[in-house]
Amino acid sequence: MDIKASLAGEIAKAVGLDGAEVLDMLETPPDPKMGDAALPCFKLAKTMKMAPPKIAEEIMGKLQKPEYIAEIRVAGGYLNFFYDKTFYVKTVMGEVLAAGTDWGKAKIGAGKTIVIDYSSINIAKPFHIGHLSSTAIGSALYKIYSYLGYDVVGVNHLGDWGTQFGKLITAYKHWGSDDEINKNSVSAMLELYVRLHKEAEQDESLNDEGRAWFKKIEDGDEEALRIFEWFKELTLNEAKRVYDRLDVQFDSYAGESFYNDKVGAVVDELKEKNLLEESDGAYVVRLDEHKLPPAIILKSDGATLYATRDLAAAKYRHQTYDFDKNLYVVAYQQNLHFKQVFAVLEKMGYGWADKCEHVAFGMVSLEDGTLSTREGKVVFLEDVLNAAVEKTLAIINEKSPELENRAAIAEDIGVGAVIYSTLSQSRIKDITFSFDRVLNFDGETGPYLQYCHARCNSVVERAGERNAKMDYSVLENDEAMAVIKLLESFPQVLVSATEKNEPFYVTRHITDLAQACNKYYFEHKIIDDNEEQTNTRVALTKAVRDVLKRGLSLLGIKAPDKM
Ligand code: ARG
């Protein structure tokens, strides 16, 4: 039973309002002394033509107190509801325990398809820390939507097209060594690329060669394609190592080159629909009515652009997956690009253009400034993960030298800390990455949550096999109630996370849960001589453990049983 929804329904019935609207208005007071749920009446002042405190009294007068409400109080413009603790604890705990590790799992997405474009790395370029946000946010959304019953399609829209690949082949032909490239893969490619740029400053013909090689790729020349495919494979092998560690999967790796044979049709369609205009030799779609600069579709040499490929990709995704949402988890630097692409789709007459959404996120930088692409310094994500794991292992070796499987646990904690740090705030905010902060076991960090989970787990294990006799009255205190409320709202938080495409809602919620749990743990003994009360407190601990583990796994973070 959803107590808040039911309460909203009763209020709505009493005063003739819409139930969903009232539910939207119902708040959880920050301090439980002010009640368990509160209705701010300010918004109703206009429609009910009364001062908010009067409205609160009016509603209280008309409302039949439901059995789960112990008391209702008017406080200024608020109507505060106090749950009947006995009823509340018993009902919520009953439901949470019955669902077990599946608490929050839902079918609301059944029959609906969500396409998520995330990670979308560039071939022959390092998988750097800047791609971490796209990868972590996209993958978390993938897992959360799936858990709510949606069909999810994860797409890695690889950056595998462009003149730079012609240049890379040129460099390889002049100075490349197969052994070196097979051994060092992207690092070696990067070196070749940098060398080409340097030498081309003296020797302009290298750029011509680069263009010629790119033309060969475009024309399907066997040698050019073979070399390019080899670079692509090496890049992906390297990326897949990182994906495995981050627990990230994709259903499709259709990147920019996949649309080579599909961009022509888009250009033709734009022509037919009279949307294409010549401008300085190039072809553009004007977007004046959207107050946007024109979208360039064809360059003066006839080459297509990133945007042209995204138009083809959106059409392809619509045809192939018939999506309900088509999400792009890409940095906010590309805001304009996506606005333009969506506006062109709209001008093409596609009603589904409004199902496309740019899920933008902020920049990632390292605290000591090592991540400055302008200076040519890139930080490989793999190195960041390795460093996090190494530092974790050092901490474990010092603090818990007796722990078994230390290396595996350090991997889970180190990688988890990095993922947590990217998902620990609203995605649009810029992030400054600091090792000291993310590996802190006390602050709001991944390790802190993992530690709380492991501690709950050891309590449950120590308590051993228990029977089902409960005495829920032992949970009718502030600390336990705080925990139970967070358990109760977990399913709703997952739904909100998909509505706003904000995995951070989940991070915040399970962080609150871990904090509430630690507070409870500090004030209350779990195991004592009273069998039924012990059963009940262990059951609460178990519920917290399971929800923490589920929440972490939806974020892509592992929860080791011991730490
Ligand atoms: N490869 C691009 C980059 O690294 C991101 C691609 C995002 N997806 C898309 N459909 N445009 O900037």
List the helices and strands and how they pair.
Layout lengths: L2 H13 L3 H7 L11 E4 L4 H4 L3 H11 L6 E7 L2 E6 L1 H15 L13 E5 L12 H18 L3 E5 L8 H12 L2 H25 L2 H14 L3 H25 L16 H10 L3 E4 L2 E6 L4 E7 L7 H16 L3 E7 L3 H13 L8 E6 L2 E3 L14 H19 L6 H17 L8 E3 L1 H4 L7 H18 L14 H22 L4 H20 L7 H24 L9
Parallel strand pairs: 4-5, 4-9, 9-10, 11-12
Antiparallel strand pairs: 1-3, 2-3, 6-7, 7-8
Helix pairs in contact: 1-2, 5-18, 7-8, 7-9, 8-10, 9-10, 11-12, 12-13, 14-15, 17-19, 17-20, 18-19, 18-20, 19-20
The protein binds arginine.
Arginine binds next to helix 12 and strand 9.
Question: How many helical elements?
Answer: 20
Beta-strand content bin? 5-15%
**Strands of the largest sheet, in order across it?**
5-4-9-10
Number of strands: 12
Low-confidence stretches: none
Helical content band: 40-55%
**Main sheet specs:** 4 strands, parallel
Radius of gyration: 28 Å
Rounded mean pLDDT score: 94
Distance between the termini: 36 Å
Structural class: alpha/beta
* Quaternary structure: single chain
Q: Tell me the overall shape.
A: globular
The distinct bound ligands, ions and cofactors come out as: arginine
Q: What report would you give on this structure?
A:
It is a single chain. The chain has 563 residues and is an alpha/beta fold. The protein has 20 helices and 12 strands. It has helices at 3-15, 19-25, 45-48, 52-62, 85-99, 130-147, 164-175, 178-202, 205-218, 222-246, 263-272, 306-321, 335-347, 381-399, 406-422, 435-438, 446-463, 478-499, 504-523, 531-554, and strands at residues 37-40, 69-75, 78-83, 113-117, 151-155, 276-279, 282-287, 292-298, 325-331, 356-361, 364-366, 431-433. The strands form 4 sheets. It has a 4-stranded parallel sheet, with helices on both faces. A 3-stranded antiparallel sheet has the order 1-3-2. A 3-stranded antiparallel sheet has the order 6-7-8. α6 links the parallel β4 and β5 (151-155). α11 (263-272) packs across α12. The longest helix has 25 residues, at 178-202.
